Amino acid sequence: MGHQLLRMGRQSNTWKADNREIYDSILYPLAKAWTYRLSKAKDVGAPEGQEWEFVFLDYLFPIVVTAGPIFTVEVTTEVPEVNQVRWARLKRAFKSEALAGDLRADIVAFDNLHEYLEERVLRTFDSAKAAIKNNVHLYDPTWLKANLGEPREPQNKAYFNRWLGEVQRNRKK
User: Fold this and answer.
1) Is residue 87 classed exposed, middle or buried when 0-12, 13-18 and 19+ CB atoms within 10 A define those classes?
2) Average pLDDT over residues 58-70
3) Three-class HEC string of the chain
4) 148-170 confidence digits (pLDDT tens)
5) Taking Cα atoms as reference points, which of 26, 46, 29 lies closest to residue 107?
6) Residue 172 lies in a domain
7) Of the candidate ranges 10-19, 61-70, 123-132, the one whose mean pLDDT is the lowest
8) How confident is the model at residue 145 (pLDDT cuts 50, 70, 90)?
9) How many Cβ atoms from other residues are within 10 Å of residue 167's Cβ?
10) Fewest beta carbons within 10 Å, which of 116, 130, 164, 167?
11) Residue 58 lies in domain
């Protein structure tokens, strides 16, 4: 996983690596948007008491698509190794009053965008969807009671029975 994203550009007949424009115009705004979207993802979902009846999935894939090729540089070896890749993972730490935390994003070459979407995004989504579908009954209090019984702890039992009652009333509607 990369920790630095650089842009190579020509300056005075020589190549220069710089990250200033990338940080200010791409990574910082992406991290702010990602943080905001994560906070809103928690607000959306199925009606209370019916979680297992509504398969809802909210995945966020922060990506930066480049017009040019992407290269990774392996610096843990004695001689740095440079490789051209279809996409690469980036982790960028932010430590400011306005934004603190890590952004993990994929950097994707435009020529490989379709392949990236198929291999990373859709494959991940299909896998999560299958896992939810196979385990969604674990959010159905009727199934839980029939297969596992009621909770033993009094406070958990009271909560469970309120939840079960709500579900049964909603099903009659």
Assistant:
1) buried
2) 86
3) CECCCCEEEEECCEEEEECHHHHHHHHHHHHHHHHHHHHHHCCCCCCCCCHHHCCCCCCCCCEEEECCCEEEEECCCCCCEEEEECEEEEEEEEECCCCEEEEEEEEEEHHHHHHHHHHHHHHHHHHHHHHHHHHHHHHCHHHHHHHHCCCCCHHHHHHHHHHHHHHHHHHHC
4) 999 999 888 998 998 888 888 87
5) 26
6) no
7) 10-19
8) very high
9) 19
10) 130
11) 7-110
Does the pLDDT value for residue 48 go beyond 70?
no
Q: With contact defined as beta carbons under 8 Å apart, do 8 and 16 qualify?
A: yes
Q: Report yes or no on 115 lying in a domain.
A: no
How is residue 129 written in tokens?
Answer: 């969807």
pTM score of the predicted model? 0.65
Closest-CA residue to 99 (of 47, 52, 36)? 36
Which of 55-59, 78-82, 96-100 is most confident? Answer: 78-82
- How many distinct structural domains can be found in the chain? 1
The alpha carbon dihedral of 9, 15, 17, 21 has a sign of negative
Per-residue pLDDT for 55 more than 70?
Answer: no
